[in-house]
Design a protein that fits this description.
alpha/beta; two-stranded parallel ribbon; Transcription Regulator spoIIAA; 5 helices; five-stranded mixed β-sheet
Length: 114
């Protein structure tokens, strides 16, 4: 899985440059992101290039969210892909996770978050 990391001030942005996230590659994602979920961290996960996610990858996103809450960190997902948004809606995760459709908007919101 291709994952790029960019740090802007106190914001960590992960861009996932792969078509699908599933049980075959989700551990790569976990290995990259978990070490950065620290007290007060602001993490943005850009899934705009992702077209498919299985239940394993969804459970990892929930794990990231829960870890962020435990550590008073901020974790937000960005995707404008209708297939992925449909998965979040169908599973009810659209209400549980912080999800934005626009990268610039998400960056601004997280940058201003306390």
């Amino acid at each position: 899985m291709k994952i790029s990391k960019e740090v802007k001030n106190d914001l960590i942005i992960y861009k996932i440059n792969t078509f699908r996230i599933d049980s075959t590659n989700v551990n790569d994602l976990k290995d990259k992101i978990v070490p950065d979920i620290k007290e007060g961290a602001k993490i943005l996960l850009d899934l705009s290039s992702v077209d498919y996610m299985d239940s394993t990858s969804l459970s990892v996103l929930v794990f990231f969210h829960k870890e962020a809450l435990k550590k008073n960190a901020k974790f937000r997902i960005v995707t404008n892909n209708e297939k992925v948004l449909s998965i979040f809606i169908t599973t009810g995760l659209i209400r549980a996770l912080e999800i934005s459709k626009d990268l610039t908007e998400a960056i601004n919101e997280l940058s201003n978050a306390t």
